[in-house]
Amino acid sequence: MKKKRGQVTIFIILSIVLIGSLILFFLVREGIVPQFWGGGEINPDLFLQTCLEEKIESTIDILSSQGGYIENSLSKEFDGKNISYLCYNSLNYYTCINQEPLLIQHLKNEIKKEISEEVKNCFNELSLNLEKEAYTVDAKYHDFAIDLESKKVIVKINGEMTLTKNSETLKHDDFIIVVKSSFYDLAIIAQEIISQESEFCNFNYLGYMLLHPEISIELNNLGDQTSIYHLQHRKTDEDFWFALRTCALPGGI
Length: 253
What we know:
This protein is an alpha+beta fold. It folds into 2 domains: 43-57 and 109-180; 69-103 and 183-245, no CATH class. Helices cover 42% and strands 30% of the residues. It is built from 5 helices and 9 strands. The chain has helices at 2-29, 44-65, 103-132, 183-200, 205-211, and strands at 75-78, 81-88, 97-98, 136-149, 152-165, 168-180, 215-221, 227-233, 239-245. The strands form 2 sheets. Strands 1, 2, 3, 7, 8 and 9 form a 6-stranded mixed sheet that branches. The protein has a 3-stranded antiparallel sheet with strand order 4-5-6, with helices on one face. Helix 2 (44-65) packs antiparallel against helix 3 (103-132). It is elongated and about 75 Å long. The N and C termini lie far apart (97 Å).
C-alpha cells in the first residue's frame, strides 16, 4: 500500500514538473518571459538593454543635476551641485545670451560622449557571451546614435552580427535600446524658460504650473544676480536644474 502511495506521489511530482516546463516553454516562446538566448529565439537587444541601462540612467542623472553638462566652467555651485548657466550675460541691464540654442542636440552629444566606451564594451561582451553558447560570431561595430523623445531616451547601435550554430545562420543588426525618462520633456521646458528670460528677463513659472500641474518649478534668486531653476516632473520625480544671469542690476536689488 505504501509502495502504491509512493508511486502516486512521484507521478504527481513528475506531472507538476512537466506542466510547469510546458508553461515556461510557451511563455518564453510568446515573449512573456524574456531571454537573451538559449533554447529559443536570440534576443541581443535585451542583453544590450540590461548591460547599458544603468549607465544611461546615471548619465541622465548627472546631466539633469548640472544643467545639461558633464563638465562646464561656466557654472554656479548651489546645493552641492555645479549647475551650468544655460543663459548668461556678465553685463548689467542686458538680457542673457542663450548658451545652448540647440539644447536638445547638445544633450544628445553629452550622453553619447559619456556612454561611448560602455556601448562598445557591451557590444563586445554580447559577442563573447554568444561564443560561450557555442555560436560562431562575426560581429562588426560601427557607431551609435542618441535620440531624445517624450518619455524616453533611445540608443541606436549601428552594427551587425552573423551567428552560426549547428549549420543554422542568424543575422542581427540595428540594435535598439529604449530607456524610459522625462529628460527630453524637462529639457523642452528649460528651452521655453530660457527663450522668455532672454527676451523679457522673466518667466511666469506660476502661470506655467497652473497650465501644467504635472510639472513643479522652483526659482531660487541668489545674491550675485544668478537665478537657479529647478524643474521636476511630479509623476516620475525626475528633475532638471540650470542657472541663468539676465538683466542684472549693479550691486543687486
